[in-house]
Amino acid sequence: MEDLVKFGLIPEFVGRLPVHSYLDKLEKEDLIRILVEPDNSIVKQYCHMFKMDNVDLLFERDALDAIAEEAMLKDTGARGLRSILEELLKDVMFEIPSTKQVKKVIVTKESVLNSDVEPLILTGRHANKPWSKELYEINSQST
Length: 143
Fold this sequence. Notes:
alpha+beta, Helicase, Ruva Protein, domain 3, elongated
């Protein structure tokens, strides 16, 4: 019961649960799956927001790993994934509507690990060049 309260559920709710189950701590792969697999996953939500400005948002596979590792390091679990992405993309999301030339934004491992490094912003012909690292794209079925 204490674990559920510590996780963020209010004690009044936890007290009404007739059965208590023990939960395992989420592993990195679990967090990555939470980021990308559900129909309303956080990554898909952000991709949709960028698409409203005609911008493709892509994630290096290494970047997804780094986001999951950061959530584990901060001990925030799945609940912390949104705040990590918010912090990572807030400046880019603010800039994009006023910059019509932007075609793609690529979240790199470096941009996740170092707050001084922004995700890559690709414009014009640079947006069509092939990327050397494995990317997660919203339209693909694999991660």
